Amino acid sequence: MHVSETGLPPPSLRAWILRLGLALFALLGASNSALAYVGAETAFGEWLTTDGKAVVRVANCGNASLCGEIIWLRNEVMSGETLRDRSGAPLRGAQILFGFRRKENTWIDGRVRALNEGKTYRARLSAISQNQLRLDGCFGPFCKGQIWTRVDMRMGFPVSAPTKSQVAGSP
To answer: Which of 24, 125, 129, 140 is the most buried (most CB within 10 A)?
Structure first.
């Protein structure tokens, strides 16, 4: 290995070592932060769906169960019209998550309604972090997942939820 007059490795090697160190730091930091936030209660709150078209409020439904209902629809706000499912019922207020039971830090054995299809699928919810929720819907052995993002609906529309560091740093 070539060492410069300063006793340091050449710049290209120093850059590689720095990138490796940053990658390891990011990896360790991400895993530690996920462990710090993840808990079954983390699933409770208001979540923007992956496509950004709806906000679902996830709450405790009693009997140690979790449920979720649509509380905001982007297309409804844009059009000013009430959007309806295949049966003609309003989408806003529709319960799309139900029957979940807690198993450690995950909600399992639940159901998710795909209102656009008129079908219900087996589902599982797990918090990835304080501000990310993974929903897996399954048909037989095949599952498909979505990542939902926590939002704040106090203003009547979705606003990104603050991170832990933003909350800790606020007066």
So the answer is: 125
Q: Which of 134, 113, 137 is nearest to 123 (CA)?
A: 137
Residue pointed to by tokens 């003609």: 88
Which residues does residue 137 pair with via DSSP β-bridges, in sequence order? Answer: 123, 144
Give the C-alpha separation, 49 to 149, whole Å: 7
Q: Look up the pTM and report it.
A: 0.70
The token duo for 120 is 């219900």
Distance CA 89, CA 95 (A): 11
Locus of tokens 């939002």: 151
The secondary structure element, H or E, covering residue 36 is helix 11-37
Beta strands in the chain (DSSP E): 45-48, 54-62, 65-73, 95-103, 106-114, 119-129, 132-139, 142-152, 159-160
What is the pLDDT averaged over residues 73-101?
91
Residue 57, strand partner residues? 46, 69
Alpha carbon dihedral 76, 82, 87, 92, in 10-degree steps, equals 60
Average pLDDT over residues 89-96: 93
